[in-house]
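ugh ok fine here u go
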Amino acid sequence: MIVLGLLLIVLAGAAVIAVSWDETAASTATASFTVFDRTFQFTQLEFFFAGVATGAVFLLGLAMLMSGMRRSLVRRRQVRDSRLEARDRVARLEEEKRELERKLDAAPTAPAPAVDRDRDGVDDRDEDTGPHPRIDVPRQSNDRLVAGRHQRTADTR
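structure:
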């Protein structure tokens, strides 16, 4: 958009310079201009409107140039803000890491707690982890199924 705006400004400026170099344009009732091997003849009223159109092209180019510059400025600000935010976030994380390292260095090292789940007086991590021998439990006479087969009596049929 900036390039198009600059192109329109240069085009309007070239038209103004071309008209100002022609001495016969202001002295006669009609003015003739040759652009790219084409001859244009304008009356004073047409010449005035051509000047208005040239001014409008200049203002349009200026507006496009300013709009493009404003848009690029906003984009640069957003990129800068996001970079600063990321840098602050990294700095906070590094400070937190340093603080945790200081706490870790300052904390006394305690031995690992003993794990004795089977309560035999020996740390389970030091025991042999082989299979334990099977223990037979004597069968008791009052064991009964809670949910399952029950004996049927004659009167429930």
